[in-house]
Amino acid sequence: MAFDTINLSGLTAPGLVLDVGGGGEGIIGSVLGRQVVAIDILREELEESSNDALRLVMDARSMQFLDGSFDEATCFFSLMYMSPESIPRVLSEIFRVLAPGGRLRIWDVEIPPAKPGDDLFIIELKIVTGAGATTCAYGVGWPDKSQNCSAIAHIAQDCGFELLGQAESGQTFYLSLLKPYSNVCEIPTKAGPMCIMRATAKHMHDAYGVLLDSCRRVVERGKRVPFWLFTAEGQQHVAEKIRDCDYFIGFISGSPAAVLWIKWADSCSWEDAGSDRLAGYVYGFGVKQEWAGAGVGRALLEWASSYIASKGRRLVRLECDAGNPTLCAYYEMLGFEDRGLTAPGNQLRKYERPSGSKAQCSIANP
Q: Same structural domain for residues 163 and 21?
């Protein structure tokens, strides 16, 4: 029997989530509650689950939803139960019902080819959520089934998905996939139009380059930056944010100029308010030196505010160095209100303002 740990404690989403194969333990519904529409082909599996998700009996190969109905979709150890010929049909249907810019998250197991005498493949999982940990096991007939991360990723890309990122433990894998946008967003700056793109795995080096440039300028001003940001650990950090959050890059004349990423909850810094589902949280904001003073950062922040509003969140929240009065004044000039330090004695100051902007929130194809 294989064993692995799956950490879902940071799982968030801005809107409705389609959970394919969401019966049985109903893990995604347990984490995200009423944000989830769980479908399963077996009524008894849905009746077995106990959570606040909307549960529907439905064949994932032919869904009854309209095109573009969901912002997010999940498959939590459900592909392992599908026949090889069904998986492309299911992923194509998920692609159809996701809105442009929608994300598909897949957690599943690496099943090697069976050896003589192997009848049943079983994996035991410890699943960690914000409410604690639970243990469950999943099993399938082995002689008829084998799968791996690479094969599933290729099928998904054949269906039209872009790879945001992946993780493999040797026992299980996680894939984050994007349904690309179909239109281009350009916003004006003093340096010329800036094209906003949703970062995917192939943009990691561009995104990290902007972050690195910003960190170096902070150090030059005598401020501290964690050393690991300048190492391979910093590159991995950016790759994980592209994979797990809404990461955006602004390009001017084809060159990466500014970056930021958005997540949809933050109880660590904002305590109870961080899970009120009222806000989008902006992090990793940086502008390259060559574009400083051209209004690039302000334009990207205004666009992000519009994007957050488009997801049904009415507030924008962020943090900055409380010991940097110039930066604090910059955010206050943009309409952010001081909400105090993240914790007594902490050097991070919290800021908040209403979302929404005149900037259009459509985005370019990755």
A: yes
